[in-house]
Amino acid sequence: MRLLAVVLLAELIVAPRVAAKDAEPIYKTIEAKHFTRVEGVELSPAFTDYLYAELRNELAKTKLFLQVIGEGEAVEDADAANSIVIEGVITEYKKGNLAAATIIGYGAGSRSLKIDVNVTRRSDHQNMEAIKSHVRVSPRWNEEVMAKAAAHQIANEVKKGLKEKTKG
Description:
With 168 residues, this protein is an alpha/beta fold. The protein has one domain (24-167): Rossmann fold (3-Layer(aba) Sandwich), CATH 3.40.50.10610. It contains 4 helices and 6 strands. Strands 1, 2, 3, 4, 5 and 6 form a 6-stranded mixed β-sheet that branches. α2 runs parallel beside α4. It is globular, with a radius of gyration of 20 Å.
């Protein structure tokens, strides 16, 4: 009987805390756009599609947005003030060196990807956040995995920045 009372009491204490972590979405929508590249970035044409798809998935996981919409999708005028657009430019890509990664390890020979990301409000195009993301991955990984790692990092930085902006 005591054990049942302790379990019930523990649940009453823990349940409100768990419910508080699942916050309501802050923004109505976010529109993810395909990222562009500067001249000289040697990635396959499919990489931007991988990055676009993974970024949409990662942004949905942040739970800051009620809906993640695709590029060019319409948003109602009433929701435009509470909607965001994310776009970016891939500024640098280094292929890495598999031999250095194998022999030396500790991050030597990693692939490197630098991306400039802009987060703007849809209604007035006000810049909400500017992110310079630098992703380093193993040269053994293919472009799909590299896109997933980059999208994960970008989504986390967007979430962190927007949460700070709403608090302050």
